[in-house]
Amino acid sequence: MSDIAQHLAVSHKVDIEDLDWAAARKHGLSETEVEMLGYFADIESQTVHYFLEVSRLKVSRDPELLTFLTMWNYEEYFHSYAITRFMEEVGVKVEAASERAQKVRAGARFKAKFEDFMQGMIAKAFPKQFIALWMFWGALQELLTTHAYEELAKATKNPVLHELLKRIAKQERRHFAYYYNNARERLEGDKLAQKMCRQIAKSFYAPVGGGVKTDAEGAQLVAKLFPNDRIFEVMGHIEKRMWALPGMDGLDACTRWAAKVQPMLPAETRATTIPVLAA
Fold first, then answer.
1. What angle do helix axes 127-155 and 159-187 make, rounded to 10 degrees?
2. For residue range 159-198, what is the model confidence (pLDDT) as tens digits?
3. Taking a C-beta distance cutoff of 8 angstroms, is the pair 211, 115 a contact?
4. Hey, what domains does the chain have and what are their CATH numbers?
5. CA 198, 105, 221: angle at the middle one, nearest 5?
6. Would you call 143 exposed, middle or buried from its count of C-beta atoms within 10 A (0-12, 13-18, 19+)?
7. H helix count then E strand count, the chain
8. ∠ CA 88-92-96 to the nearest 5 degrees?
9. Residue 160, Cα to own-chain centre: how many angstroms?
10. What is residue 3's predicted lDDT score, i.e. its pLDDT?
11. What is the DSSP string of 86-98?
């Protein structure tokens, strides 16, 4: 069975109908959890827009790639729906996932529009390398997303939220695996693609959502999940996974981002020690 066939065989929207909503209401949510879940729902809801942007590009018409992107978009949309439903069930006033998605997108920053433009330019000039870059970038972002869901699942005192986040994280790990394995195949032997991925990651890496959230909002959310020196521990783990990809050994884009955003963070979440980075 091919890699994409394996993913299709287990693809499904995240199951929430068996969750104990009464127990979820009993335990409730902390103010921080409400903030984090709202952020997660906003970002997950934007997947459909990322899908539409890349599907317009000629280079994305590969049947296997379109199959994966369709599956990925479907599962990610229901992550937003599930989180929104959970918040509603515990009494948090929140807009429907589809309505919120449109409002979030309407507020997209210039950065998002610039990224769309540059994505199209790269795809036309370097079609083969663009797909490798897309897969590499997807792996980089999905791994942090997985860590975020798993971290909140460990920290919450609400057992129903814990279960929901575990289910979402399991799907995110599958998404990461596909992006990662595909990136490895496409980067192998392609020095130009390797160079492009390294340079773009070094110059532009930030957690997913930068187009619709400010740099400070993204940094503060990550720092709340991984406060103090923990942020560098997590970023270092992500980088070590990426080092195994062809041409990515020693990449430190995530650590550089974490160091750069320290001044944006509330004092109580800042790191006590910032790693020394090579010039």
1. 160
2. 999 999 999 999 999 999 999 999 999 999 999 999 999 9
3. yes
4. 3-7+17-269 (1.10.620.20)
5. 60
6. buried
7. 13, 0
8. 50
9. 23
10. 78
11. HHHHTT-----HH
Written as one letter, the residue type at 261 is V
Contact 160, 28 (CB under 8 A): no
Q: Give, in order, the Cα–Cα distances in Å from 177 to each of 115, 132, 167, 242, 273.
A: 25, 14, 16, 12, 32
The whole-model pTM stands at: 0.90
Provide the 8-state DSSP code for 279.
-
CA dist list (Å): 123 to 28, 53, 119, 142, 185:
46, 12, 6, 21, 18
| Residue 42 DSSP class | H
pLDDT in tens, 12-63: 999 999 999 999 999 999 999 999 999 999 888 877 777 777 777 777 777 8
Amino acid, single-letter form, for residue 235: M
* End-to-end CA, the chain: 45
User: Per-residue pLDDT tens for 135-167?
Assistant: 999 999 999 999 999 999 999 999 999 999 999
Length of the chain equals 279
Question: CA 62, CA 74: separation in Å to the nearest integer?
Answer: 18
Pick the closest to residue 15 from 195, 164, 154 (CA basis). 164
Where are the strands (E) in 5-117, listed by range? none
Q: Find, among 89, 77, 102, 65, the residue nearest to 14 by Cα.
A: 77
The Cβ of residue 27 has, within 10 Å, a number of other Cβ atoms equal to 14
d(CA 49, CA 71): 14
The structure tokens listed for 121 are 């330019």
